[in-house]
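Dear colleague,

Thank you for sharing your sequence with our group. We've completed the structure prediction you requested, and as agreed, I am returning the results in plain text so they can be pasted directly into your records. Please verify that the sequence below matches your submission; if there's any discrepancy, let me know and we will rerun it promptly.
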Amino acid sequence: GQSESATYPVDLVLRAHDRNGLIRDISTVLADEGASVTDLSSHTDRKTMQTVMNISVEIRDLPTLSTAMARLEQVPNVVSIRRKV
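Please find the predicted structure tokens below.
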């Protein structure tokens, strides 16, 4: 059954060109979609200036996840976002 307060864990991998305010912009999108970030780690390759973020979130449902991922793709400098498998 479904509960209105139920959330589901999802692991995401985000790739982006590093810039100031990137994590803030990503966390704002996730907060706006009602996702709770449970873990976030990132690594930046200084030669290519590309950041890889592993983000664990708890989210209400699949449509909300789809919307959040579509909005994350629109964040400036984000190259890709996908579910971790």
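Summary note from our side: The helical segments are 22-32, 62-73.

Kind regards,
the structure core
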